[in-house]
Design brief:
This protein is α+β, with helices and mostly antiparallel strands. The protein has 5 helices and 16 strands.
């Protein structure tokens, strides 16, 4: 699964499906049997008040996820199909293991604490919790509390994420970029033309794409849009991250 497809499915789960937070699930239809089973497995997570709240939701037939269950469910094939067990997910499918949130975070590669350099489809994490960056400054996460109960879209910079990284079971592809897009320039070199052989150092920071030169050596002309960067020239695709 590509990162763009992965992110799109996570965003769709948040926007198009009725969901509820249930510790230990990865896309199961909510039933009384499921609530009872999970309460027996994780009694500390299911006080009487929570069980009563969940039982009241059964008539709406929401899909149940916990935070890492959203990631696993999608990678295991969840597609919100009520005719299929677990909405289409198959336990441990596609070579994706059953791991907790912290273990999945540890398995990520190219990890960073700098949220300005995040790519679509990367995992974002903090102690005991994990989500999926879906682009446009938004994260899809299954969470409970602060007015949330289920899979929701939240602001990337409002939830205290401590890091991000690429999931090893996702194939990451570069997003297409267009004139006018806001990007993050990684801070390498900019060139005086799209075909120039010699470049000059430029500082990292936010920038805007002003011109395109498809199939050229340096296909994007960008101009800095903050005081951190001084980039003003043609750059390479790998030097840009779409905001």
């Amino acid at each position: 699964m590509t990162n763009l497809e992965f992110a799109a499915r996570a965003k769709d789960a948040a926007q198009s499906y009725d969901t509820v937070y249930l510790w230990g699930t990865f896309g199961s239809p909510l039933t009384e049997k499921l609530i009872r089973k999970k309460a027996e497995q994780y009694p500390a997570r299911y006080p009487t008040s929570r069980k009563n709240t969940l039982k009241k939701r059964i008539p709406q037939a929401p899909w149940a996820f916990d935070c890492v269950g959203l990631i696993k469910g999608i990678l295991w094939g969840w597609e919100g199909d009520p005719e299929k067990t677990y909405g289409g997910a198959i336990y441990k499918a596609n070579g994706v293991p059953d791991r907790g949130a912290d273990a999945v975070a540890r398995a990520c590669t190219e990890k960073s604490e700098d949220l300005s350099r995040i790519a679509v489809g990367e995992a974002v994490y903090k102690d005991g919790h994990i989500g999926i960056y879906v682009g446009d400054g938004k994260v899809a996460e299954a969470t409970l509390g602060n007015g949330y109960d289920g899979v929701v879209l939240t602001d990337l910079h409002a939830r205290g994420w401590t890091g991000h990284g690429k999931l090893p079971w996702v194939t990451y592809q570069a997003e297409e970029m267009q004139k006018g897009d806001e990007v993050f320039f990684r801070g390498t070199e900019h060139y005086p033309s799209s075909t120039a052989a010699k470049g000059y150092p430029a500082r990292a920071g936010k920038a805007r794409i002003t011109l395109l030169a498809p199939d050229k050596a340096h296909p994007y002309h960008v101009v800095h849009s903050d005081g951190e960067s001084n980039v003003h020239g043609w750059v390479n695709r790998e030097d840009l991250v779409k905001n």
